[in-house]
Task: inverse folding
């Protein structure tokens, strides 16, 4: 196995961790990782250096965004009660960190996880999300404010319109 | 003014929690926190969230990696359905990107997204209109103004590929709203009453491979080329549909 593939292989556990936290579903998470790996392997000969880790996080983040966008297009029946998006949880589990993450908008969740779980620098997160660093900082700040409000007040914070 | 006197920003509080604060600002932030209990409390709360997230998901890295993520297995899978020029065009996009390999990679991931979104639109249109018995199309294939009209609205010279080798005859077409511009939908029917559609709309992405997908009985092949996205949709018959798509691509390229 060549160096490129070895480097990718070493990153699989971390990619699974990120995907799991991002989707809160082990199967969907591994689907995402699998698609990410397939894309990366297909592009092997096109990889002309750079940060492999950030590149893989970028692919995974984009694939997840597309997946959610596709889901959003499909009409679904939503119960008219205030329930967390993570339907797997039960009331007994209460308002834990996973539910708080689930209540975040996608870009905020991704920014928060890349920083606190994956240990990426703000600069790297900006590259992964394709936005200026200031946007990363505001996503991070909002994510933390929402998580705080969610856990303390027992309901998702109102999204402020700016 | 010394480092300590520069006011501490909200960004710096985050950087402090995330260990991304420049070393020379550390003392200033700590002094600030000692004097501002509210901020100190926020910083403590943020730390706790981080610990909770890591406690909840950190263990995933210790799990055995499932076999389906084995790289050798993934490599051994047959490469996805690709078509000639498209691959070269993707390569060219990278070469032209030069040292900006990073940007090019990001772009590829986004392009996959754009063409998949296009596929969703096309499949929805396919399902909606192929069910119609009386009004599947707006303008019939034998009317002279079909192609000039759709070409003008979509913004390119359109041709309806000849699919008679597959026993598919052109019924006609209609104009639809696409993701960024109008889209043309051509519909074909065979002797058995099966219908396939060809969807075309401007799509500003680099060329992509042809990718087949089966979506609960409606299959489709999507590709992008020369700033247009194309989708062939039809019954879930992979061999037939891939051949139809390849024939359509070949004819569209040679016109």
Result:
């Amino acid at each position: 196995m060549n160096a490129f593939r070895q480097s990718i292989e070493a990153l699989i556990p971390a990619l699974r961790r990120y995907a799991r936290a991002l989707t809160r579903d082990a199967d969907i998470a591994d689907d995402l990782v699998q698609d990410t790996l397939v894309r990366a392997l297909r592009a092997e000969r096109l990889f002309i250096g750079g940060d492999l880790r950030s590149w893989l996080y970028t692919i995974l983040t984009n694939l997840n965004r597309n997946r959610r966008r596709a889901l959003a297009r499909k009409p679904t029946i939503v119960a008219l009660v205030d329930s967390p998006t993570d339907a797997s949880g039960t009331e007994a589990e209460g308002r834990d960190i996973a539910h708080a993450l689930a209540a975040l908008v996608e870009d905020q969740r991704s920014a928060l996880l890349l920083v606190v779980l994956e240990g990426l620098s703000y600069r790297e997160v900006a590259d992964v999300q394709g936005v200026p660093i200031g946007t990363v900082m505001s996503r991070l700040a909002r994510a933390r404010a929402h998580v705080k409000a969610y856990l303390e007040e027992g309901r998702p914070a109102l999204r402020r319109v700016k | 003014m010394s480092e300590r006197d520069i006011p501490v920003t909200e960004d710096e509080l985050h950087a402090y929690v995330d260990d991304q604060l420049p070393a020379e600002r550390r003392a200033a932030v700590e002094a600030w926190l000692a004097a501002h209990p509210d901020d100190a409390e926020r910083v403590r709360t943020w730390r706790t969230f981080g610990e909770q997230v890591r406690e909840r998901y950190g263990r995933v890295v210790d799990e055995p990696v499932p076999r389906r993520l084995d790289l050798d297995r993934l490599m051994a899978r047959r490469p996805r359905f690709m078509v000639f020029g498209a691959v070269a065009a993707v390569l060219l996009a990278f070469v032209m990107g030069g040292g900006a390999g990073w940007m090019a990679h990001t772009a590829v991931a986004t392009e996959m997204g754009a063409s998949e979104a296009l596929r969703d639109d096309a499949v929805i249109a396919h399902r909606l209109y192929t069910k119609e018995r009386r009004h599947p199309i707006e303008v019939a294939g034998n009317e002279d103004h079909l192609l000039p009209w759709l070409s003008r609205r979509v913004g390119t010279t359109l041709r309806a590929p000849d699919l008679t080798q597959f026993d598919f005859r052109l019924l006609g077409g209609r104009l639809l709203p696409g993701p960024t511009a109008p889209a043309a939908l051509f519909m074909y029917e065979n002797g058995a009453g099966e219908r396939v559609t060809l969807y075309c709309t401007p799509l500003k992405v680099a060329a992509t491979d042809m990718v087949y997908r089966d979506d609960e009985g409606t299959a489709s092949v999507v590709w992008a080329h020369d700033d247009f996205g194309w989708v062939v949709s039809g019954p879930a018959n992979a061999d037939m549909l891939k051949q139809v798509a390849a024939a359509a691509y070949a004819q569209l390229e040679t016109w």
Summary: Residues 36 and 51 of chain B are 23 Å apart (CA to CA). DSSP finds eight helices and seven strands in chain B. Chain B has two domains: 3-61, 84-254. The two ends of chain B are 71 Å apart (CA to CA).
